[in-house]
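#struct-help
A.M.: can someone run this one for me? Single chain, 80 residues.
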Amino acid sequence: MESEGKVVYDSVERPRHYNQGKVECIDAIESAVATLSGYEGYLIGSAIKYLWRWKIKNGKEDLLKARWFLDKLINYSDEG
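D.P.: on it. Structure tokens below:
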């Protein structure tokens, strides 16, 4: 959102913890999961989300959440 040429912080449309660098997190996730099945895509997308924001949002807690989703994916891939 812009106001008189300045970007205004919007916690819903453009939260800071998902807008770092040149690529927005949701766009990166969309590309990363484009060829995956629903559940696999969900697990990968969630892991990416937590890895993307860990340093500026919840720190180690987000890293542990990312690992939780990766562990789910590993177990799911062993079943298939």
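A.M.: thanks! Residues 2-79 form one domain.
D.P.: also worth noting: The chain has a mean pLDDT of 85.
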